[in-house]
Design a protein that fits this description.
alpha+beta, Recoverin, domain 1, 11-stranded mixed beta sheet, globular, EC 3.1.4.11, lipid degradation
Amino acid sequence: MATDASHPSDLDAELTVPLSLQKGSQLTKISEKSEKKVVFRIEPDEGQILYPSRKHGLVPIESIKEIRTGLDAQYYCCTQFGYSQDSMQRWMTIVYVLNSNYKTLHILAPTKDVFDLWETTIRKLYAIRLGLMHNLDNVEIRQTVWERQYWKSADKGGDQSLNLDEIQAMCVRLSVNYPPGELKDLFNAADARKTGSLNFPEFQQFVKLLRRRPELEALYKKLCGDQQMLDFAAFERFMTNTQKSSLTSSELKLVFEKYATSLHTPVPALSSSAPSPAASAPVAPPINTNPVVETPPTTPLPPITATGAPSDMPGPTQAPSDVSAGTAAPTFMSTESFASFLVSEDNAPIRPESNDMTQPMSDYFISTSHNTYLVGNQLMGVSTIEGYIRALLCSCRSVEMDIYDGTHEPMVYHGKTLTSQVSAREICQAIAKYAFVSSPYPVLLSCEIHCGLAQQDALVEMMTKTFGTALVKAPLEAHPKKTVLPSPELLKGRILIKTKNLYVAAELDKAQKTAATALKAESSSESSSESESEVAVVMEELGELKSELKSKWNKMRGIPSSTTGGVDSKAKPKIKPPMSMALASLLVYTVGVKCRGIDKTKQYAPEQIFSLSESKANKFIQEGVGMEDLIRHTQTHVVRIYPKGTRVNSTNYEPLQYWAAGCQLVALNVQTMDLGYRINQAMFMRSGRQGYVLKPLALRDPHFQELRKHTKHFLDVTIISAQQLPRPRDSSGKEIVDKSIIDPYIEVALHIPDWSNSPFLPANKNYDHDPPSGAHGGSATSGRTISFSTRAVKNNGFNPMWQEELCLPFDCIGGMKELIFAEFTVRQENKADHEPLARFIAPLSSLHHGFRHLSLHDSQLCQHLFSTLFVYITIRDVA
C-alpha cells in the first residue's frame, strides 16, 4: 500500500504496492469476444483492481477465488484462446465472484518483468486479505487496512487531510447516522491541532471514538464488579459458566496470559469521554425476556440488564491483592484486551471438528457435485473444466462426467440439451492437478458412459495415463476385507471410477425378467402350493445366476476362482460384452447398479452403488418403513442422490433431508449459490473442508436405538449488536452510496429435517414456521424452517444495537444437531425480497454457546472483512 510522510505506516513491506501499478500499466485484456490493450491499476487501500469498462471494470481482491499462472493457465492461454506456449509466462487468469456469479479475467503482460511485478503484487495483497478473512487475530493489520481504505476513499481533495464535510460523507458510506452537533463534537475531539481538518493520526483517533463498543464495556464492568479489572479468577468463571468452555484451568490460563497486561503497565481505554450517540443513548435497552413457551424455561437466557451484561453473570469474589515491593505485579485483562479476546479465534463461534477417517466409506457424508462440467443452467450452460476446478477447490470429493463419443476422442456434455462440449482428456488433466489441493481424501468420478467400445477403451487409456498410480485399479492389499468398504484414510490420494457395470446390469435384468415372468404366470394358478413350488424353482435359478455373476465379477477383479464357490462359468452361454472390459476392470469399490429396492429381500455387494433422483428418494423418506430401510442400507452401502431433471435452472434441493436418511453422495449444483449450497458448505466446514464428514452415531447404529429418541429444545439467541454492516452493491460490485442510511434487522432461522410427523411447534407463535415444500409442485424436497426476526434499527448500519432475545423451538431425532442448521441473515427494513446484506450459517452442533462474534458473509460465502454480529447463544432442553 502507498506510503508517504503524511500517511505513516508501521506495516511490513509486504503491504506496499509499486507506484507504477497504482498509476496503471497497459496490459492486454482477452475474452471470447475480443482482445484489447487496457490500462490496469491497483487501488491498494480500497483493495481493488481497476480497469476501464462499460460493465464492471472492478475486481475486489477479497472476492478472488484463484490466481492462475504458468501451467495452471495453460488451458486458457493455449487451448481456449490459441496463444503460443511462450505466452504462458506472461499470462494470468484471475477467477473471482461478483454478484453471485463466477467471473474470469484473462490478461497478458507485454514483458516478463511487467508480468512478474503484477503477479507478485496481486498475490501479496490477496494473501493479506485472505488472512484477514480467515483469522480474526490480526487486529493491528486489520485496523490499519480498515483505516487506510476509508481514509483514501474519504480524501476526495487528495490533500492528505479530511475536513468535516469529508468526514460526514464518510459516515454516510459507513451507514452512521450522527446528529450534526454530535458528529462535530467527535471531530473537534480528534482535531488536536485545531486546524479544522484531520491528518492521518488525528483520523485514527476519530475512528477510535467512532468505533467505541459500549456494550463490551458494560459486559467487562459486570464481570469485574468492584475490582475494576478482570483477573484470571473472574475470566475462568466467565469461560466456564457463560462460554461453556471445555478447556482445563491450565489451558484457560494460557489464553488469559495471551491477552493479559501487568498491573504496572498503562492500559489504553476502550471507551472515551467524548460525546457520541452511543454514550448518550441507553447502553442496553430493555428486551423481551418472555420466551415463546407456555411454561417458564428451566434455564432462561440471562437477561441483558441496563449495563449490557446478563444479570446472573458470575462476578468476582475478592478484590485484587495489594502489590508490594519485590512481588510480581498481578496480571489482568483490560477493557481493550478483553474486547480483542472476544473477537479473536480463541473465542470463535465455530471451530473445525476432529474427524475420524478410519471408518468404512459408507459411514461418511461426502461432498458431491452434480453436472460438474456446467457453469450455467442444464439446458444451455457452458461445459468447461472450470466447473471441476471450482468443485475440487471447494473440497467436493465426488464429481460427475457425462461422456459421449466425440469426433476423435470422448467428450463431456449434458446429453439432449444445447450445452457445449469439453474434452474428457482436458477434464482428466484438470482433475489430476486439482484433486488433492484442498483435501487429501479420495475423489470419486461418477461417470455416465454413453460412448462406444472404442472410445471407452480410449477413455480408460487416458485416465490410466493421466491419473497414474492414484487410479484405483485393483483391491487394496491393506484392505483384505470384502464385506465392508475401505476407509477414506486407506484411500487417501486415490481416484475411484464409478459407473454402471453393464455386464452385471444385463445379467441382473435377465434374471429379474425371468423371475417376474414366472411369478406373473403362477400368480394366476389355481393351486397355491404349485405356485409356491414354481416360485421356489425360479428363486433357486436366480440364486445360481447370482453365483455365476459373482464368479465373473471376481474374475475381472483378479480374485482366484477358488473363492467363487466352485461355479463353472464356462458351462454357461457367454453374453456379448455390453461395455469395454478395460472400463469394467476399473470398477473396484464403486460399482454402479440399478436400484432393485431396499427391503431385506434385496441384496447388494458392498461396492455396489445405486443413484436415486430426489423424487424417488422422497418416496422412500415419506414411507416410515422405507425410511428405515434406506438408513439400514446406507449403513453398509453408498447411495447417491441427484436433483431431478425439472431443475433446468440448476437450483438445489436442501441436502439435510437426504443426510438424515443416511445418504452419502448428496449431489448439488455447486455453481448455484442458493440455500442448498450454503447448507452443504456449512456441513463440510465442520471438518475443515476435507470433503468427508463422519455420519452421526444414530445413523451408524445397526440397532436404531438412538433413532428412537425424539427430543425438544429451544435455541435461545440474544442479538446484541452488529459492527460495520456492508452496504448494498450494484451489479458491478460497487457499493451503492447515497444519502440514505440502512435500517437493518436480523432474521434467525433454523433449517430442520422433516423427520417427525409431530414437530415441536409451541402454540404461542412468536416465530414463523415454513413447512417442507417441493419444487415445481413435486414432493417435498426441503426441510422445515423456523425463523424469528428482530425489529429494525433505524438509520444505523455501523454499530446498530438490538438487545433482543429470540427463542426458536426445534425438535431433534437421535441427538443429530449436526443436521440442523442455524442461519443469521442481515436484511433491510421493507426490502425483504432484496439480496440480504450479509449472512452466517453453521450446523447447530458446531455453534458454541456464550458471547460470540459471528463473521458475516455475502451470498457467495465470501467473508466481509470488517462485518460481525455480536450475539449470546445457548440451547435449552424442554422436558
